[in-house]
Amino acid sequence: GVVCATDVQFKGRGRSKNVWESPPGCLMFSFTSQMNDARKLPLMQYVVCLAMTEAIKDLCCAKGLPELDVRIKWPNDLYLKGLKVGGILCTSSYEPKVYNICTGKYVPNGADTNTGRSFIIKTWIPLPFSGIGLNVDNEKPTTCLNAALQELKANSPRLKREDILASFFNKFEVLFDIFSNQGFQALEEQYYNSWLHSGQRVVVQDAHEGQSVNSVVTIKGLTPSGYLYAVGEDGKSYELHPDGNSFDFFTGLVRRKIDA
């Protein structure tokens, strides 16, 4: 893949076409990777989030620094001490890839069975594109990694952006390989240890006779498609979706019953 890092960002892309501006002091980078299974694309953002939280922990440990308890707020934000310090945006496009298909006893789709010749066919593969922003040095308007380190230990050495970047890709390479070969289930337990939501009770909106009715459900994890899995007070299982209008994903959640 290709990695692009920058010191200052003027037209960063956010959710719902929001534009983000980032001053010096933030780690901002984008990278590409390739996947063969498009069904896994919605879960890619969770692998990236996990890689960053684990990378920060590993780096603090390697440098003998206090551990920063950076957590994942579903679906793609990073929080520290209840405040946002980073965000991830994953998008994808499809690009052609050329495969050389050799004929033999087993003839793949598109092979010329009459002449026995090998020839080239084109397929399309998903190309995930991930962008990450992490506040390393700016204490305002909320907090940053190095400010949190100073609170934990005065005169603590500061984290450097380039060290975080290197630690991230060391971790991402391992997690992405597991994800690609074994699926996200192999990473779920590790992911849940880093997110904020296990056992969280949230309000969801239901339509009943033309009226919006609020109900309370408890988050248990993720569904295979990457949405929130929750159990209602009625004991039934639900998949939670954002309503598409709220800035905060946890405002205006809607639910879909999961058939047993």
TrEMBL record:
Pfam families, per database record: BPL_C (PF02237), BPL_LplA_LipB (PF03099)
Residues of the BPL/LPL catalytic domain: 1-180
Molecular-function annotations in GO: biotin--[biotin carboxyl-carrier protein] ligase activity
Keyword Ligase (UniProt): yes
Gene3D superfamilies: Bira Bifunctional Protein, Domain 2 (3.30.930.10)
Signal peptide start and end residues: none
InterPro entries: aa-tRNA-synth_II/BPL/LPL, Biotin_CoA_COase_ligase, BPL_C, BPL_LPL_catalytic
Keywords assigned by UniProt, alphabetized: Ligase
PROSITE patterns, sorted: BPL_LPL_CATALYTIC
Keyword Disulfide bond: no
Gene Ontology cellular-component annotations: cytoplasm
Highest rank taxon of the organism: Eukaryota
Family indicated by similarity: Belongs to the biotin--protein ligase family.
Protein name stated in the entry: BPL/LPL catalytic domain-containing protein
